[in-house]
Amino acid sequence: MSRLRLKEVHPRLTATIVDLLEGDPLAGTVEDLPYFGVCACTQACRNLLTSPPGSASPRSLPLLLAGTEVIGLSLDPTGTAITDIEVLDPAFYG
For the whole model, what pTM was predicted? Predict the structure, then answer.
């Protein structure tokens, strides 16, 4: 059984992330990100998981629009894979 992809659940958000990454090598990985649902670590956490729960590391990449962080990407320890996404502006959900 194939896993649901982030782009199938949140197509506008996926396109926005690719645009905001502006040529970063991570941009090429976004279209194929799996979707593991919303993080359940606390009731307040709304991060979207693109790796199994517990995969995030302290490494992160803020995505800025007009100088303001609108999306936060958590990365794996190598910085080459997005493990979860924090959407700071709900307008990006579409």
Answer: 0.91
Phi and psi for 90 in degrees, rounded to 5?
-60, -15
Find out whether 26 and 80 touch, Cβ atoms under 8 Å.
yes
The whole-angstrom separation of Cα 62 and Cα 32 is: 20
Buried residues in 11-43 as b, exposed as e (16+ CB within 10 A): eebbebbbebbeeeebeebbeebebbeebeeee
- What number of CA atoms fall less than 13 Å from residue 86's CA on the CB side? 15
pLDDT 10s digits, 45-65: 889 999 998 887 889 999 999
Residue 33 and residue 41: Cα distance in Å, rounded? Answer: 21
1-13 pLDDT per residue, tens: 558 999 999 999 9
CA–CA dist 18, 45 (Å, integer): 23
